[in-house]
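Case study 2.
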Amino acid sequence: MLKNKKTFSTILVLAILIFSLQLVFAEGQAEKRKMSADYYNLTKENLPVWDEQVLKAPTTKVWTDKTSVAAVANAVNDKAIDREKKTDTYQDKERKVKIDRYRGYIRYLNQNRQFRYGTSPTTPVDKQEAEEKIFKTVKIIGIPVDEFQKVRVDTIVAQGGSIKTKKIGEKMYMEQLVTIKRQINNLPVYGAMARGAVSNKGEVARLLIKWPDFIPAKMKRLRNRDSVIEEIVKRIDEQANGQPVAVNMKLGYIPSHTEKRIEYIPGIVVAVLPSQSTGFIFTVPIAE
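Prediction:
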């Protein structure tokens, strides 16, 4: 009899535990459904508006075929490099130039123009002067000026200190960093930019260009807006896992790598910041 009572008690406890877990799971699912609805409303409110115009982006001319390592050296006002036009790499003791025509990529570096503590000037050139210098440099290299979207200039500052005395040293102004973003058809082109560092002597110390030839992917029609919303909500649901989120969305052209070239697809770049975890970014095409 006692054994049967113990067995019954055990079964009763297990049943209560299972029921409690079911309630918790049901509540969790209800909360998740609620957050999914919140994600939907948030997405619907913040999703940019687009029309057929996004499918009318022009194919840009091939600018990469018109440049060379010698042209890069000339553009940054460095010593001449005697190389054939199709030679895409060059390196000596102080300089390095690399061109990747498939990616619209150019990299230039001159170590003698970098900031050196104790010997380099500590006063940066005027931001307007730095902007004009990089603007002129990339124009000479061959980037189409009508694709420039906006320019940003950041002053690079270094500051040391003593571990023993806990005193912070003086700020050292090292260079001006100029970034030019790209646009086509009045929309940003993601993954494309030109960036140059101007030393305190007014010389171009580094240059990085990522400006592929713009080739629109063959898209026949725009996607239904509701289907785009559903895809975005699904992606947020999968990664945010029910957390409240902040969302930022931008319309633009997204690069797609094929075997032979880079093509661009109109789409939405979605940046999500959950309340209790690391943020994430993803893209969703708006045409097919």
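Residues 104 and 212 are 4 Å apart (CA to CA).
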